[in-house]
# Entry
Amino acid sequence: MKKNLLYLGLTGYLLFALCTRLQAQTDSLQAHRYVTRATMYGVGFTNVFDTYLSPQEYKGIDFRISRETIRMTKLFDGNVSVQNFFQADVGYTHNRADNNNTFSGLVNWNYGLHYQFRLTENFKLLAGGLFDANGGFVYNLRNSNNPASARAYVNLDASGMAIWHLKIKRYPMVLRYQVNLPVIGLMFSPHYGQSYYEIFSLGNSGGVILFTSLHNQPSLRQMLSVDLPIGYTKMRFSYLADLQQSNVNGIKTHTYSHVFMVGFVKDLYRLSNKKGTGLPSSVRAY
# Structure
């Protein structure tokens, strides 16, 4: 009887250890399916300058929307995260004399990887690189000859983050600071005084695609955010400093934007469904 109990206990212990190990392996394999997604809306101040259109600065209001997803990958033993960040903004500005206005817009998409250095359970530093694509315009309402200027450029950015999970009197929050620095890229720009008609209709396109780096495109994007649980939702409040400038083909430009944003954060779990198999009817809402 004692032998049977001993065998039974040993078998139960082995099964428990095996299940625990399998569960740990499963959690490790599935960690990359957890996604944090944030959608943000913001308004702020912008300063637009483009000597192709005018020698004056234009200052005004900036409206912005952004969408971000970030998740872990399987790279380097699961220590690398991938970030997909999209934002679009529209600005309405006026000159110092307040006798002219411009519209401006820019779409920006970042996609990149960060290696995560977990210094403590609640604090980590991230370092990596991003692909940074941008396209937009500036439209001057009073210019008749060259009323608009196009913005089109791509960069490889160095990127870093600091993420801190903390509690204030048992109230949890997440602080994050991120900085992106364009290091090398390509930019489209006409020569000073050259019309777009000359470039696209007459074929005078020599030198309109230029190599860029810190010497002629010293730009920076910074974001500081805090995530707060409010009721059954999680909200994010952030400040974005988007500082873009260039000096190419005799044309100087800058767009300095300082935007305060608010939105919602969701934690999701991605299902693997490569074969397109439908969900069971008992759990399917659609």
In short: The first helix runs from residue 2 to 30. Helices lie at 2-30, 75-78, 196-200. The two ends are 56 Å apart (CA to CA).
